[in-house]
Design a protein that fits this description.
Length: 108
């Protein structure tokens, strides 16, 4: 994760690759200012532009941290058709200062 909450981190395949995942990760800040605040509100079918490439959102859901851990081997696999995966935190708990869930957006 980048140190600056307004910056998005990048891992995996190059944008527009033929296979594998381009993973973008960034912060949600519970009181605003995170690069990926409100990621969960991006509608299916939306077009995303990343480094000159166009992607269409095919899935966008909030899942528990346990579900993300279980899905990670498949979700972040560098084999198979290329896809863009964008992940941030969700469900902030003020009492603990932690988030319970993650937003996982997939675009092709």
């Amino acid at each position: 994760m980048p140190a600056d909450p307004k910056t998005v981190g990048w891992w995996g395949s190059k944008v527009g690759a033929r296979k594998g995942v381009t993973l973008l990760v960034g912060y949600t800040v519970h009181d605003g200012g995170g690069a990926l605040d409100n990621l969960e509100d991006v509608p299916l079918g939306s077009t995303l532009r990343v480094a000159g490439e166009r992607y269409t959102v095919s899935s966008n859901r909030v899942i528990s941290k346990a579900q993300l851990a279980k899905a990670a081997p498949t979700l972040f696999s560098q084999t198979g058709r290329h896809r863009l995966v964008v992940v941030t935190c969700e469900d902030y708990v003020p009492a603990t200062g932690h988030y319970l869930s993650n937003v996982v957006l997939i675009a092709k």
